[in-house]
Write a structure and sequence with these properties.
6-stranded parallel beta sheet, 9% helix, mainly beta, Pectate Lyase C-like, 20-stranded parallel beta sheet
Length: 502
């Protein structure tokens, strides 16, 4: 064992020399920024998509998903199967005129496919303007190469309200692709889902706008008073919550594979109460004009596999959640059995591009395995977070074989139950009656070349973080580690080059 430690008041400062060879850039690797009113990316060039991804999306003959070797019991997830029947959108009155809405055509094609017992709804090459798309069981919405589904910016198109969850359950504007209580569903192919999110961003971002704040204030009050969910209705432009590009609620056996998601109104993919969900070979792009532009958020879901995806996001690329405060306790449904592997992450427009667990985790998170991923210019790498009063348990998390460089603002490794306190080190004055519990968290083989901050592990005085293992960690950073209120920590070959000591 080799651990180089010097103890400072209220923290640890680790100092050592770290040599790290950066990964060479691939031919054509680049990210193109501001163009007009949104960001455009060349992630397809960056990733070499479909050339090196095992089982990359195609029409037939796909190899099976690689075996999952998790440190906890988990089923070997495979793609859902569909009958070999195709339903072409053009046969249901669709028009590629970018000014004509195809909402009715999408609904008719999906209805016909479901009524026949399932199959593929083919979206051919072209630009297809539409309002929300409602998936049904046994339907694979397949985007041909060159197909772009461009979602309407007319807010009225997303009514009547549907059941949603943003930490708290409510009824609100439909997400752009929505499914409720479906099984065997998929979105596949090499096309593009364009959320055209700018209009919805004004609910949060326009100067003086209180639309979304009004919505969240109402929901927090409703949850605290245990208002029935069916009475929590947010369906006006004065009090509303932005939709996602894809939101799946109470669904089973789900596949998202091969396509690009761009310009979401808010969280890009919100996976709520799902069982057996696979996301693979996706390009997830969110721009810098608005907040909460997360990538994929498993939300009280189980048996989740996210692999071979590329993220360039303005907020968390992946955020594992399970409900907020009273409503999370009421539902009491954890996120569990989640594997993230072979993905690449970066922040867009100075944004995040990291993996988060929390902060809405009141229903609990357990059995998470993240391995063999790369991070470049992200704000942090792994951020496990909650705040006093949130309750819930995050436990049994394994993180292994990560490479990172040029990490900004947020520590490479951050584990904190004091998120949002705004207190300087070492001042934490919480003493809540419902502290969150973090325990059994292991990091192994993490290498980072260049970061603003290195390691933060920060519990609460009334509920220390328990049983943390850091093994074979190499970080070059401007700041050393900060560790406070931790019970049981193992440091095995932890090396941090720190230009500043805390």
């Amino acid at each position: 064992m080799k651990t180089i430690i010097q103890r400072a008041t209220g923290s640890l400062a680790l100092v050592a020399a770290v040599a790290l060879r950066g990964e060479p850039a691939r031919p054509g690797e680049k990210v193109e920024h501001r163009s007009g009113d949104h960001y455009q990316y060349s992630v397809r060039q960056l990733s070499g998509r479909n050339d090196t991804v095992p089982g990359a999306s195609g029409d037939s003959g796909l190899p099976p998903i690689e075996p999952i070797h998790a440190p906890f019991p988990m089923p070997q997830l495979q793609r859902p199967s569909f009958p070999e029947r195709d339903f072409n959108l053009l046969d249901y009155g669709a028009s590629a005129d970018p000014t004509v809405k195809n909402t009715a055509a999408f609904a008719a094609a999906i209805d016909a496919c479901a009524a026949a017992g399932g199959g593929r709804v083919i979206v051919p090459a072209g630009t297809w303007l539409t309002g929300p798309i409602r998936l049904k069981s046994n339907v694979n919405l397949h985007l041909a190469n060159g197909a772009e589904i461009r979602f309407s910016q007319d807010v009225a198109d997303y009514l009547p309200p549907v059941l949603r969850r943003r930490g708290i359950e409510f009824y609100g504007h439909s997400s752009q692709i929505y499914a409720l209580e479906c099984s065997n569903i998929a979105v596949t192919g090499k096309g593009l889902l364009n959320g055209q999110g700018a209009k919805f961003m004004t609910w949060h971002w326009t100067k003086g706008s209180a639309v979304e704040q009004n919505g969240y204030d109402f929901l927090r009050k409703a949850a605290g008073e245990n208002m029935p969910v069916e009475k929590r209705i947010l369906d006006t432009e004065e009090s509303a919550i932005r939709p996602s590009i894809i939101e799946l609620v109470h669904c089973r056996n789900v596949l998202l594979e091969g396509f690009t998601l761009d310009r979401p109104p808010s969280w890009t993919v919100n996976v709520v109460y799902a069982d057996s969900f696979i996301a693979r070979d996706l390009d997830v792009l969110t721009y810098g004009d608005g907040p909460n532009a997360d990538g994929i958020n498993p939300n009280s879901s189980r048996n989740v596999l996210i692999e071979h995806c590329r993220f360039s996001t303005h907020d968390d690329a992946i955020a594992i959640k399970s409900g907020q405060d009273e409503d999370g306790w009421r539902v009491n449904k954890p996120s569990e059995n989640i594997v993230v592997r072979h993905c690449r992450f970066s922040g867009s427009a100075g944004g995040c591009g990291r993996i988060a667990i929390g902060s809405e985790m009141s229903g609990g998170v357990r059995n998470v395995y993240i391995h063999d991923c790369q991070f470049d210019r992200s704000s942090g790498v792994i951020n496990i977070k909650s705040k006093p009063g949130r309750g819930g348990v995050i436990e049994d998390v394994w993180i292994k074989n990560l490479k990172a460089k040029s990490i900004r603002s947020v520590p490479v490794i951050s584990i904190t139950t004091a998120f949002g306190l705004g207190k300087p080190w070492p001042e934490v004055e919480s003493l809540t009656t419902t502290p969150p519990t973090f325990r059994n968290i292991r990091f192994e083989n993490v290498v980072c070349e260049g970061s603003t901050k290195s390691i933060e592990i920060r519990g609460l005085p009334e509920r220390p973080i328990e049983n943390v293992i850091l093994k074979n960690i190499q970080i070059s950073s401007e700041q050393g580690p900060e560790i406070q209120h931790v019970k049981g920590i193992t440091l095995d070959d932890v090396q941090v080059t720190a230009a500043k000591r805390q």
